[in-house]
Amino acid sequence: MVLKLKQQNCSGAGPAPAVDTPTIVRGVIDEIRAKGDDAVRAYSEKFDKWSPTSFKLSQEEIQHIISTVPQQVLDDIKQVQDNVRAFALAQKASIQEFEMEIRPGVHLGQKNIPINSVGAYIPGGRYPLLASSHMTILTTKCAGVPHVTACTPPIAGKIPANTVAAMHYAGADDIYILGGVQAVAAMAIGTETMKKVNFIAGPGNSFVAEAKRQLFGEEIGIDLPAGPTEILIVADEHADPFTVATDLLSQAEHGYDTPAILITTCKTQGEKTIAEVERLLKILPTADVAGVSWDRLGEVIVVDSLDEAYKLADEYASEHVQILTQNPREALEKMSNYGALFLGEKTCVSYGDKCIGTNHVLPTRGAARYTGGLWVGKFLKTVTYQEVTSPQESGELGRLCGRAARAENFEGHARSGDARAHRYLNDKFEWIE
């Protein structure tokens, strides 16, 4: 049985899309492709009212900006980055290079090569997302990427000093105060003053996400298709409704389009959580945003058992799944579709967002059904190589290749195999004199 105490109300209040985002983004990209820096500057002036002599910060400017940041903020940035670095390096260590000899003289190998250059987009706008510097730039550098270009927009016409500090300590090689489509397009295409990158990572608004989508493939690789933040909580009757409500709202404040879902085995739990959410919205400073998401996309669902809860949660395939039950680690065995799991009352999604060390760039809109989140492996190309040193084995492989290729009517492929069978095993072929 599934009982919905609260359903989505997509007709509720909140900003509605009033622009053709793909067309606007395509126009910006095309103009930057044609006019380079001149177009970048024009769009920065238009969208951000920002047109400095140089968008790129010099090392002297970076050090001056960092000197304005409170020491406690700098200390916290370094501590969080220590956590992210430790986890990313452990991930890298888990990706093994190897070489094996599958037959005498037949060697196959795997090698991990960092991408040559990566562009990191660090959002601004409503919130300066320092954490995105850790998650994108630092993880990239842990993978061994030689050069990282990082862009972040000005906020209300000012340089976001805290963000610049985080970008610098994360290891960015070049830092630009530049935002939006113009930043993504400049990194992807390259201009007179900005080198083209091979890959772009980092979250952003709908325009940034659309720019990455349009540039993906032909110009660059990207981390993940971006979408609104999502939170889903699985709770039993023992969970604290105050904690459940607080954690739902912690993600709902991201924007007007954040699904915040509770699946519980206890109707009383669901009712108390709804009441707590309504109470907390009256005192939450970001209620003007969180309240819209809760009204439009909040759900509270009652099911008969935890097995049913896990099954339903898997169908949602949410970005963040928080488990508030007596045995939270059960979810590791019961669930398979999620961006990241947060196990137990002592753990919250905000830890993952801001400080614990795992990456907060995660799949949304059901993408968790087929991919995980951003990790150090995204910045490595896992390539293969092969070498045959045995004449006998090369000839035997030639015979096998000839038969396999002709079964597919690939005569040219077959003859490459024939040539080895002829040379090393003295096989005779009509086409070889």
UniProtKB/TrEMBL annotation:
UniProt keyword annotations, A-Z: Amino-acid biosynthesis, Histidine biosynthesis, Metal-binding, NAD, Oxidoreductase, Zinc
The protein's enzyme class: oxidoreductase
Amino acids binding NAD(+): Y121, Q182, N205
Needed cofactors: Zn(2+)
SUPFAM superfamilies per record: ALDH-like
GO BP terms: L-histidine biosynthetic process
Function: Catalyzes the sequential NAD-dependent oxidations of L-histidinol to L-histidinaldehyde and then to L-histidine.
Protein name per UniProt: Histidinol dehydrogenase
Taxonomic placement: Eukaryota, Fungi, Dikarya, Ascomycota, Pezizomycotina
